[in-house]
Write a structure and sequence with these properties.
Order of helices and strands: HEEEHEEEHHH
CATH architecture of the largest domain: Beta Barrel
Shape: elongated
Number of domains: 2
CATH class of the largest domain: Mainly Beta
Number of strands: 6
Structural class: alpha+beta
Strand content: 15-25%
Strand order of the largest sheet: 1-2-3-5-4
Helix content: 40-55%
CATH superfamily of the largest domain: NigD-like N-terminal OB domain
Length: about 190
């Protein structure tokens, strides 16, 4: 009578399941962070896009050293020598690496604003990607350029409700994907 070799439970599964489980747990945590961060950012942006101008603005004077039509828009040097990146109000978490295009900054404005001593009303906003300094009002008398709150925040004021719904739906999809990855990670971890 032939004998059969019984395999142990550990031999029945791929040896890669523990590393794959860790990768899935990491992806699940990343998707969960993106989902919660997107919800937080979209609610913050909606709150400020439906008000005319925030109450907690501070006035600052600085020299504009670099300017870009993509966020962050302005690299500035304050009177004490400190430098910082500022931007017009945008979608906070939306495309933080490449930046969002701000059409209110034209090529002519970019040339005129570089090196300008400007006065601005700014605020620091907490987002999922850290603190961002927003410019709600920018005045550069030597270049004869003034961006008021309606122009500076025009990108977030265009479609505030549809932007909120769209970003909350994306956050929900990321949440479901995080749950799916957690289930896969749990199943892979049991295969040891």
């Amino acid at each position: 009578m032939p004998t059969t070799n019984l395999k142990t439970q550990g031999d029945q599964y791929l040896p890669l399941s523990p590393p794959l489980a860790r990768i899935c747990w990491f992806l699940s945590a990343l998707l969960l962070w993106m989902s919660v961060g997107s919800c937080f950012d979209s609610v913050v942006v909606f709150n400020y896009s439906t008000t005319r101008q925030p109450d907690d603005l501070k006035t600052a004077t600085f020299s504009i050293t670099e300017i870009s039509s993509r966020t962050p828009n302005f690299k500035v040097r304050f009177g004490d020598g400190e430098t910082a990146w500022l931007s017009f109000p945008d979608l906070l978490g939306g495309n933080p690496k490449g930046g969002l295009n701000m059409p209110q900054i034209t090529d002519d404005a970019r040339q005129q604003l570089k090196g300008c001593m400007a006065t601005a009303k700014i605020r620091s906003v907490l987002s999922a990607f850290g603190r961002r300094i927003q410019v709600w009002d920018l005045d550069c008398p030597q270049a004869h350029i003034h961006y008021g709150p309606e122009v500076a925040a025009s990108q977030i004021k265009q479609n505030p409700r549809s932007d909120l719904v769209f970003h909350l739906m994306l956050a929900s999809l990321a949440l479901f994907a995080a749950y799916g990855m957690a289930v896969v990670a749990h199943a892979l971890a049991k295969m040891r």
